Amino acid sequence: MSEFKGTKGKWEVEFDTTSLQKHIKCGNKYIAEVSFGNVENNSNAKLIAHAPEMLEMLKYFTAFPDEDFEEDMDKHISFPMTVDARKIKEAKQLIKEATEPN
Fold it and tell me: CA distances (Å), 18 to each of 5, 14, 42, 70, 94, in order?
């Protein structure tokens, strides 16, 4: 699985009172800028800021190899939920799209 090549570290939302923008930053590095002013834009800023953490979590939950997925799930009877193998494959495709160069 490809490694995330974007900005490493904790991304945070910061409100800029001068420009009335929400900045998504990692330390002093700007990642993105979102217009301030409504619930939709504020929600977009939060989603962008949490994207790296969500990517890592998605990678964690898709760690089973495709061909061994169902067999591995049978071995892990303590696994707390029912998982659809097709959704795991879709998640792996999303990770690939988000991490591999165009």
Answer: 31, 12, 17, 54, 36
